[in-house]
Amino acid sequence: MRVLAVAVAACLALVLSPTVHAAESPLAGRLILLDPGHQLGNSNPRFAEQLAQSRFNGTTVKGCNTTGTATNAGYPESTFNWQVAQVLRRMLEAEGARVEMTRTSNSRDEWGPCVWDRAKQANRIGADAMISIHADGSSARNRGAYVLVPGLVKGWTEDVVKPGRRLGGSMIRGLGSAGVPLSNYIADQTMVTTNTSGINFSNVPTVTVELGNMRSVADARLMSSAEGRTTYAEGLLAGLRDYFSRD
User: Are 146 and 189 in contact (CB under 8 A)?
Assistant: First the structure.
């Protein structure tokens, strides 16, 4: 009986394990474009001219890119975004997904790319989804994750509104299931946007995920730890699983 009990326990452990084999994952064969927001060198004065470029995005004229925010201790958003993306990339590839990145470094000697070029990359490669990874710089009392999803801009976003909003819902469910704190200042953790260039220029399902508020002490503590960044990556992974399992 003891041997039988051990065998049953082992089977249950396998069934309940969060590990998903590549062949079984809804991500297998999917092409995901990860967009770690900003770039460390965007604050470098050498690149002021490049970053001063602007384009009309369907509703307004916006700039090439920005420096992003930082924690009160000086941990840059661009570095946080990059580090989460690296963890997430490994997780996605382990489940059989193909992954491309909008930038391949996090360096003071690099800038951009411009947000419209990041979206155009998604279009060019025919990505199944584009996840733009960011963190907010809001009031210190605000915390938690939320998503920006496409609003309707005629001639620009008609093809991505429905899948983009579905992707946004999946990302919130995934982040919550991984234990990532969800926003206490954005209703339903979802912001419909008509002036986000990275979304408006994209022709594939795209969302911007604000993983937390870098000005919140609690969020900053989580973001600044390797364990916390793994939690964020697990939440994004769960969101992508959810999205493609409903496809």
Answer: yes
| pLDDT given for residue 247 in this prediction | 76
Q: Which tens digits make up the pLDDT trace of 171-188? A: 999 999 999 999 999 999
The predicted structure's pLDDT at residue 24:
87
Tell me the domains of the chain and their CATH numbers.
22-245 (3.40.630.40)
pTM of the model: 0.91
